Amino acid sequence: MNQPIYLALDFPTWAVTENFLMINQLQGVPVKVGMELFYHEGPSIIEKLKENNHPIFLDLKLHDIPTTVKRAMQNIASLEVDLVNVHALGGSKMIEYAKEGLLSTNGSKQTKLIAVTILTSMEQTMMNHDLNIEGNVLEQTGRLAYLSKQHGADGVVCSAHESTSIKEKCGQDFLTVTPGIRLENSSKDDQKRVATPKFAREQKADYLVIGRSITRAKNPKAAYQQALRELKTK
Ligand code: C5P
């Protein structure tokens, strides 16, 4: 793929999404479909996006007992998206079963399994107190990335701040997908571990996820172009 930015389609319906993509001339760009849109539209949203040639990251963040996740992944595999994810905190067996579920269909496209480490909306205090996970975010994302890799994941979701260190631990081919991206002068919203596109590229992120910096901009088309420019800035 030439374009490493997945645009987060955090919209309520296909009608709103289609209109947004059309008026901003973003047809065909890589997109991320999350729970909001998928739970409203169901799997048909994937077919609609494919008709318009969008590469797709299906961000459903599965986290359940291993057998349930495996069976859900068997269904997801038939959608033939590029990337799908689970929470690494679901543990080693759940990650293994997720991969088995994805591998169990004979489709032409092999969907990559990505594990969410620590959400980019969390910082260390929240991780220590709410999740009762000791240590700092860098250690924990590294540990969860290594666990994910050992059990069949192709990469992780992490913040740009952890990407380089994860690749040192897990290998340069292990994918890092980084949300929490903010264009220069954009609001952080509810995200904590944010970074600019340029910083993410410098930290060797394979794919960036960008939502509100583009979708809530006064001129989303211009914001998308700005993201591409910032990504290329030396
Ligand atoms: O609007 P913003 O750029 O913050 O959107 C980030 C998107 O990435 C949201 O759709 C969110 O669900 C998703 N995401 C995230 N952190 C993760 C995994 C996914 O922010 N760890």
From TrEMBL:
Pathway: Pyrimidine metabolism; UMP biosynthesis via de novo pathway; UMP from orotate: step 2/2. It is an enzyme of class 4 (lyase). Residues 4-227 form the Orotidine 5'-phosphate decarboxylase domain. One of its GO terms (molecular function) is orotidine-5'-phosphate decarboxylase activity. The active site is at K61 (proton donor). Its EC number is 4.1.1.23. SMART domains: OMPdecase. Substrate binds at residues 10, 32, 59-68, 120, 182, 191, 211-212. Belongs to the OMP decarboxylase family. Type 1 subfamily. Homodimer. This is Orotidine 5'-phosphate decarboxylase. It comes from Allobacillus halotolerans. The lineage of its organism: Bacteria, Bacillati, Bacillota, Bacilli, Bacillales.
